[in-house]
Amino acid sequence: MTEQMSSAAPNARIHAAGVSIKDLRKSYGSNEVLKGISLEVKPGEVVCLIGPSGSGKSTLLRCVNLLEQPNKGTIHVGGFEATDLDVDIDKMRRKVGMVFQQFNLFPHLDAKRNCTIAQTKVLKRSQEEADKVAQHNLDRVGLGHLSDRFPDQLSGGQQQRVAIARALSMDPELMLFDEPTSALDPETVGDVLSVMRNLAKEGMTMLVVTHEMGFAREVADRVVFMDGGVVVEEGVAEQVISAPTQARTKEFLRRVLDPTHIEIEE
Amino acid sequence: MAMTVRQRTRVSRSIQYGILIAAFLAFVLLADWSKISSAFLNVNAAVNQFPTIITVALKNTVIYTALSFVVGVSGGLLLALMKLSPVGPYRWLATIYIEFFRGVPALLVFIAFGYGIPTAFGIRFDIYVTVMLALGMVAAAYIAETLRAGLQAVPKGQLEAARSLGMPQWRAMVSIVIPQAFKIVLPPLTNEIILLTKDSSLVYVLGMAVSQYELTKLGRDGITQPGAGLTPLVVAGACYLIITIPLGILARRFESRTAKSNR
Q: Which of A153, A169, B186, B223 is most buried (most C-beta within 10 Å)?
């Protein structure tokens, strides 16, 4: 009893898991989207995946929790080998929180129920305990006072923060973010990013596909630039963004950071 | 001399109204009302239908409809899930079932259940069970297609989000996808109940006791009484409307509610 409570107790320390991807390949028909990707994310590390659209970064992210089935290569997440055909997918996914570009909140449930349904149905927590965890995580993303709102009564930024609270309510050891701010109104982007920043500070392992270079530079430990299904360049965030070595990275960053084509200051 | 668009519209509309009013007046003035009322609106014959038409016939119509709707929705849901299944044989079975029961007249299915199956297998169903199975199995074929469309209308991201939280496929369907699908299909599903209400009249092909009569059967029996004319059928028809019109209103209300919020 006490043990169960403590595992879900508010402010429980994050038990962070690492990710290890080796030579991952993924094709849709004859179109090879991932052409042998290798990537290490250490426990507690924040890694941002950047790159032009169609470069395969979202596919890579979705392979990590098996929303896409890779064709070749291995992925280790925490103690699980995701690419092992006998892996218990559902058990593995409990450890991996996922945040989508389109939020994907459950529209027929209010914010709190969005955060409790998987706790009660999957983790078999009591409703009372699940409510407590949900409320804690909604507070954590600054929306504790809106727990009885339905998704369509929330702004995009609020919905995305509820989606983060929903994922956190499962006590994940790794969080995946798939362009979490790309569908948001500009004025709500900041709230979502600050929630993510706090999460990074608390020591969560995070793998983030993003176009927010400011966030990547400030929060990420490392940045991985992908193009055409391969990793073109990776390294310390500040270095990759401010002083990229590869021509393709330079070209991409020039476009993203400065759409008006004025020289960026070094 | 040339009329403006607005004047022309007004003139043409007046002419249309004039024709409608003239046709109505001609009908009222020229029709033989005594004959019409003795054929359709015989007060005595109408009164004679009561209270049986309510206590037995209306009640049985509702029971037959409700029973077959329960079978129709559960069977339809199963078929819809089979049709969306990645397992080939499930899809084929569901397709064959749907094509068959959607394609043959419900009347034939009634006859098969009422006479064919007892002869072939030596099983004799109670009349309520017969209607429940015969009408329910036909309804399942239609409802399956409605539900399949509803399930497919739930965005794929919903299933992905549920699975990402560690829910197994069945749990994600039960807790996340199916509740949303039902909200989408409520209006067409109400339509299905209205169709079922009327199709329950097909039970007349089976022999049944008076206590099992539903509206149409009772009405048909009523018109054999001398002097009743078709009045008993008119009363039976009115009773169908008592069931179907509120259902229609309910459906519209669901529709406007789901239109307002997509909850």
A: A169
